[in-house]
Design goal:
Blueprint lengths: L1 H19 L8 H15 L2 H11 L4 H23 L5 E3 L1 H12 L6 H20 L2 H7 L3 H22 L3 E3 L6 E3 L5 H18 L5 H16 L26 H4 L5 H25 L12 H18 L4 E3 L3 H6 L5 H14 L11 H15 L11 H17 L2 H18 L8 H15 L5
Antiparallel strand pairs: 1-4, 2-3
Helix pairs in contact: 2-15, 3-4, 3-5, 4-13, 4-15, 6-12, 6-13, 8-12, 8-16, 8-17, 8-18, 9-10, 9-16, 10-16, 12-13, 17-18, 18-19
């Protein structure tokens, strides 16, 4: 038996080594699988949230569930097997909200035309990626703003997680947020889970983040009446009249009334997803000596192509998920992490009842912990260069305050350019930074921002 096991390991290892370069990046199969499971559990809420939002706009929730799983599977497998990076792709919740409440309900655009707009957005987004425009933006992203984006996303993750369990809630008077019900089961479980995660990670317990997620899920099944077992298996339906696969109307999306919406989606995706990819790569130490993402061109193309696929399948626009940071914190360094996520989303189509089993307070501690890890980007700010450092902090703060990555990046660029001029340091500006700033400012002042 022992000999057979050894032979199997020897046969499998070269294949995975060739595909994912595990030893070269200082990782192992076990480490990558745990990271993939962690990322999957951190982002699985999307298969509940996305169908719910689009369902309000008239989409069939069951069809959207299938589309959401397919988009996450396709995008993550493409990122894993082609780009070899530990970043998962899924339907972007922010763009889903825009699709449901602004396009369909707000502007009265039909569902087929909306899907056509998402498809066109993906095509233009891909052209922007393969022609090198996105890489040009990444190359010319000032160090302060690059670090500030990571800080802002970390704080944003913490806020999202805290709000999902009711720890931080909206406030009708005074400041916009306040402390929620500290005595609620979800709040107490998430706080204890965060503390446990910090302790386990300090002790370097393998899979500590994942262990906390599993433990809190079991706790919920036993003690929380809102968490219940709904079954195990359900066949996805691709043939019913409600299926959205191939139902897009591309010609309708080419209508002059709809085209500005397509361009707004592209502009938002370019800076939102590009900033997220840069932050995730930094978190996973996947930057080269010049600060560029290893295989960054493939990563940028993978998430844009996924939006084309989303339009075809009947899903919302796709992007690299910031929840991927949970997997990189758990040790993910290669595309095997993303591949595991993709395979799990494929399986989830057939195990849809299980998606309702993991409560929000089981994954919230992971997102909170990752958010805190990303705050380490503060140490990368050069406070000897006050303008660069403060523009980065401006970016970070407004990502959180506006709940929008692009808005934070825009205000960071504006602070940098005007700050350099007022400080008499205009010679430190290059043409690329000025052009990006003008483009972003015009995007917002023109009223096209999402």
């Amino acid at each position: 038996m022992k000999s057979a096991k050894t032979t199997s390991e020897v046969a499998v290892s070269p294949l995975f080594e060739r595909l994912f370069k595990l030893s070269q990046r200082g990782s192992t199969m076990r480490q990558e699988v745990i990271a993939g499971l962690t990322t999957f559990l951190a982002m699985v809420y999307s298969v509940i949230v996305v169908p719910k939002m689009l369902g309000i706009a008239g989409f069939d929730p069951g069809a959207v569930f299938v589309a959401t799983c397919l988009v996450a599977a396709f995008g993550s497998l493409l990122m894993g097997l082609w780009a070899n990076l530990p970043m998962a792709i899924g339907c972007a919740v922010s763009l889903t909200a825009f699709t449901a409440f602004s396009l369909v309900l707000g502007q009265g655009i039909s569902i087929p035309v909306t899907l056509g707009a998402i498809f066109l957005m993906g095509v233009i987004f891909t052209l922007v990626s393969v022609t090198g425009v996105r890489q040009w933006i990444l190359t010319n992203l000032p160090r302060g703003i690059a670090s500030g984006t990571g800080i802002g996303i970390g704080l944003f993750l913490f806020l999202i997680a805290s709000n999902s369990v009711g720890l931080i809630v909206g406030n009708s008077q005074g400041l916009p947020v306040k402390l929620g019900d500290i005595n609620s089961l979800g709040v107490m479980a998430s706080v204890v889970g965060l503390a446990a995660t910090i302790g386990l990670e300090r002790r370097r317990v393998p899979g500590g983040i994942l262990l906390v997620i599993i433990a809190l899920t079991i706790f919920g099944v036993i003690f929380d009446p809102k968490v219940s077992y709904h079954g195990l298996f359900a066949m996805p339906d691709f043939t019913s009249q409600h299926s959205l696969v191939g139902q897009l109307d591309i010609m309708g999306a080419l209508n002059p009334v709809v085209l500005p919406v397509v361009l707004a989606l592209v502009m938002t995706a370019v800076f939102d997803a590009t900033g997220a990819i840069r932050a995730m790569a930094g978190q996973a130490n996947l930057l080269d000596s010049r600060g560029r993402i290893i295989d960054g061109d493939k990563a940028l193309t993978a998430d844009s192509v996924s939006s084309i696929f989303a339009g075809l399948m009947g899903g919302s626009p796709a992007a690299v998920c910031i929840e991927s940071a949970a997997g990189t914190a758990a040790g993910g360094k290669t595309g095997l992490t993303a591949t595991v996520v993709g395979v799990l989303f494929l399986l989830l189509m057939f195990l849809s009842p299980l998606s309702y089993l993991v409560p929000a307070y089981a994954t919230a501690p992971a997102l909170m912990y990752v958010g805190m890890l990303m705050l380490a980007n503060v140490s990368k700010l050069d406070f000897d260069d006050k303008v660069d450092a403060m523009s980065g902090l401006t970016c970070a703060v407004f990502i959180v305050f506006t709940a929008n990555i692009v808005t934070g990046i825009m205000l960071g660029f504006v602070a940098l350019v005007i700050g350099r001029i007022c400080a008499g340091e205009w010679r430190k500006l290059n043409l690329a930074v000025v052009l990006i700033t003008i483009g972003l400012a015009a995007f917002y002042l023109g009223g096209w921002a999402i």
